[in-house]
Amino acid sequence: MANITLKGNAVKTVGNLPQIGDDLKDFKLVNEKLEEKTLSDYSGKRIILNIFPSIDTGICAESARKFNVEAGTLNNAVVINVSKDLPFALGRFCAAEGLNHVESLSDYRGTFGDDYGVEMEDSPMQGLLSRAVIVADENGKVIYTEQVPEIAQEPDYQNALAALA
């Protein structure tokens, strides 16, 4: 399990991020149309998983905005925002913000948090996903991970993007 903090207070996750060189695990996430999306929907594409607790918090919203800007410049790559937010909330936020270069998918009825080791198991945010970034190549091999150590901190965008170079 990862030991992270929320405003300096210890928080534990249910596991650890995949290791570099691992295959991404399959997932079932839900889009704003309530359609299930799986890893195979992105076959042959490079993937950035931008994982966060809730789009309704400032830092989570900012990470979605920043990755949206960068996603518009990427070749053969997709940025997927993943949270436990309802798909409707994710869709509403992206529409209001004009985020059209990222996909936002919900784990509200799935096991992504457990499978990827990012579900928080204690703290007031118990049950939500921790802030993390996982990058995979077009073959689904993990090439970069970041478990952000402080939930109130933004991920390292440049290192995540550099992994695709």
TrEMBL record:
It catalyses: a hydroperoxide + [thioredoxin]-dithiol = an alcohol + [thioredoxin]-disulfide + H2O. It holds the Pfam family Redoxin. GO terms for molecular function: peroxidase activity. Coiled coil: none annotated. Disulfide bonds join 60-94. InterPro entries: Redoxin (IPR013740), Thioredoxin-like_sf (IPR036249), Thioredoxin_domain (IPR013766), TPX (IPR002065), Tpx_CS (IPR018219), Tpx_Peroxidase_subfamily (IPR050455). The keyword Oxidoreductase applies. Keywords: Antioxidant, Disulfide bond, Oxidoreductase, Peroxidase, Redox-active center. Transmembrane segments: none annotated. Its EC number is 1.11.1.24. Residues 18-165 form the Thioredoxin domain. PROSITE patterns: THIOREDOXIN_2, TPX. The keyword Disulfide bond applies. The active site is at residue 60. Belongs to the peroxiredoxin family. Tpx subfamily. The active site is a conserved redox-active cysteine residue, the peroxidatic cysteine (C(P)), which makes the nucleophilic attack on the peroxide substrate. The peroxide oxidizes the C(P)-SH to cysteine sulfenic acid (C(P)-SOH), which then reacts with another cysteine residue, the resolving cysteine (C(R)), to form a disulfide bridge. The disulfide is subsequently reduced by an appropriate electron donor to complete the catalytic cycle. In this atypical 2-Cys peroxiredoxin, C(R) is present in the same subunit to form an intramolecular disulfide. NCBIfam families: PRK00522.1. PANTHER family: THIOL PEROXIDASE. Thiol-specific peroxidase that catalyzes the reduction of hydrogen peroxide and organic hydroperoxides to water and alcohols, respectively. Plays a role in cell protection against oxidative stress by detoxifying peroxides. This is Thiol peroxidase. It comes from Kaistella pullorum. The gene is tpx.
